[in-house]
Structures are given as C-alpha cells and as structure tokens.
Amino acid sequence: MTEIKVAQTPSSVSATQGGSVLLNCTFEVISSSVGKFGWRRPSLNLEISDQIPFYRDSVVRSGQKLFAQKTAFIEIKDLAKFDSDLYVCEVEIRGVGKGKGNGTELIVIDNIIEMPGHTFLSKDRGDPTNLQQFPPS
Questions:
Q1: pTM
Q2: 64-105: per-residue pLDDT in tens?
Q3: Residue 65 has what DSSP assignment?
Q4: Cα angle at 81 between 80 and 83, to 5 degrees?
Q5: 35 close to 128: Cβ distance less than 8 angstroms
Q6: Cβ contact 111:121 at 8 Å
Q7: CA-to-CA distance for 66 and 79, rounded, in angstroms?
Q8: What percent of the chain clears pLDDT 90, i.e. is strictly above it?
Q9: What share of the chain is helix, strand, coil (3-state, %, to 5)?
Q10: Gap between the Cα atoms of 40 and 92, Å rounded
C-alpha cells in the first residue's frame, strides 16, 4: 500500500458564529480507483458527518463526482464556538493506499453587530435575539 499525498486549503480560516465555512481537500493518485474520504476532528476523535446528531443539519460534503476529480470539500454551516478546532481530510483508495492532510485550523469568532452608537456581541450562533452590549455599559 502507498501513502496518498493529500493537501488541504486553507491551512487556517476564521469564520463568524452563525456563518458557514468551506474546507477543501485535494489528493494525488495515479489511478482513479474506487475510494472514500472523510473529515475528522482529531482532538475529539470524531468523524464529521451528517450522521452525527450534532452535525445533522449543519454539514454538507462533496460527493463521488468531485472525488473522481481528486478533490473533496466539507461545508460546516451555522457555526458555533464549539466548532473551533483542527479539521483533517482523510482519503482512502481501495487497493492503492491511504493519506491525510495536514489539517485546516478553524477559528470561530464572535458575531459582532454594530448599530449607530452601539456595538452588540451575539452570544449564540449569531442569533440577534440573544445580544449582549459590548463593551458592557
């Protein structure tokens, strides 16, 4: 078995709470065989999938058509602070080998909402009904 070279872009990305982010992965392999890919959060030993209840409505993965073009992506929607972590793309080609990328560091930042004379910090997934004045008065 051979190690497949996997590249991820970007290496680091910041996104706002309540927003979404797209993480990309490409790989090099001579033959385009049947295979699979996945995304992991090594710190939690967790595969990112819409089969996991926490991610059920907030994850979109590319399909086999893009995989045949040696590329894959994952979109994470409705970001929360908990989503801040390192995400690693893993690729396996049957009969060829496996490989994984160096990871993409996702940093989820507070959603700041500015209105004339006031700045508010959204505390929960960008929900504008849950605002805290910043700095506190």
A1: 0.77
A2: 788 888 889 999 999 999 999 999 999 998 888 899 999 999
A3: H
A4: 70
A5: no
A6: yes
A7: 24
A8: 40
A9: 10, 50, 40
A10: 14
C-beta of residue 109 within 8 angstroms of C-beta of residue 16: yes
What is the model's pLDDT at position 79?
Answer: 93
Q: Is 76 left (phi over 0), alpha (psi -120 to 50) or beta?
A: beta
Question: Which tokens belong to 61?
Answer: 């993965």
Contact 93, 99 (CB under 8 A): no
Name the class of domain 2-108: mainly beta
Q: Which two tokens stand for residue 48?
A: 């990112």
Rg (CA), the chain: 18
In sequence order, the 6+-apart residues with CB closer than 8 A to the CB of 60 are: 50, 74, 75, 77
Q: How many residues does the chain have?
A: 137
